[in-house]
Design brief:
alpha/beta, 8 helices, 13 strands
């Protein structure tokens, strides 16, 4: 299995912290966020990695070079137009070739064994993809996922409004005491995903959304299995979370 890391964005919510470096290069416990991700992937046996760069791409590319110092083989692809998460993975299409690949954002930290658990679950059945989920997050800021009894994805609603949440509760789709599954932003895909990213149209936000491709895959009959993340999951979304990480609070 290979890995693709999306690290092209500026990270505007970080303010001045990302004026000169991309958000994935912000330091946590003595090394960049992105380095934590890469070493975690290597620890679970994923060594072929493509990093999608963009904002201050040279900072990432110079720091990691070919990845040999970390035991990895790193290549790069540059996203020159920041038009969403749906098209960015296509830049790694030649790198992926016919292989399965793990896809992660460059600002999400998990325990290294999470990647191994993802690979194991993906290989346990005939799936076109796997998406990780977590509990306790505000689903209006991400994706709300519904699963069938086999924990395969049935429905995904991207950034539901408070009104939509109330409607789902009224319809009995969200029930008291049951988990509300938030999209955790780490996936495994077969290359078939590129058939669906190629057909994407821009969302109302003016971006190509990866979640739209996932919805289209489900609607076309592809099975995408879910995996709840055990233990640590941190979306380094803003300076407050970054400071909590640096203080060892998350």
């Amino acid at each position: 299995m290979k890995a693709v890391i999306l690290a092209a964005g500026k990270g505007t919510r970080m303010g001045d912290l990302t004026q000169e470096i991309p958000k994935p290069m912000l330091p946590v416990q003595g090394k960049p966020i992105l380095e934590h991700i890469i070493t975690g992937l290597v620890d679970c046996g994923i060594r072929e990695i493509c990093v999608i760069t963009g904002w201050h791409a040279e900072v990432i590319e110079t720091h990691f070079n070919n990845g040999a110092a970390l035991g990895a083989r790193i290549t790069y692809a540059r996203q020159t137009v920041q038009d969403g998460t749906g098209k960015a993975p296509e830049l790694a299409k030649a790198f992926v070739d016919r292989d399965d690949f793990l896809l992660t954002y460059g600002d999400i930290l998990v325990r290294p064994d999470t990647y191994a658990q993802m690979a194991e679950r993906f290989r346990s059945g005939t799936f076109s993809g796997l998406l990780t989920v977590t509990e306790g997050e505000d689903v209006t800021k991400g994706g709300l996922n519904f699963f069938d009894p086999d924990f395969c994805l049935r429905q995904l609603i991207e950034k539901p409004s408070p009104k939509q949440i109330e409607e789902l509760r009224a319809a009995g789709q969200l029930k008291p005491g049951q988990p509300v599954w938030y999209n955790a932003g780490i996936y495994v895909f077969r290359p078939v995903v590129f058939e669906f990213t190629a057909r994407l149209e821009k969302s109302p936000r003016g971006e190509y959304e990866l979640t739209d491709a996932i919805v289209a895959m489900v609607n076309a009959g592809h099975r995408l299995v879910g995996l709840p993340i055990q233990g640590r999951w941190v979306d380094v979304r803003d300076p407050q979370v970054l400071e909590q990480l640096r203080q060892g609070e998350v």
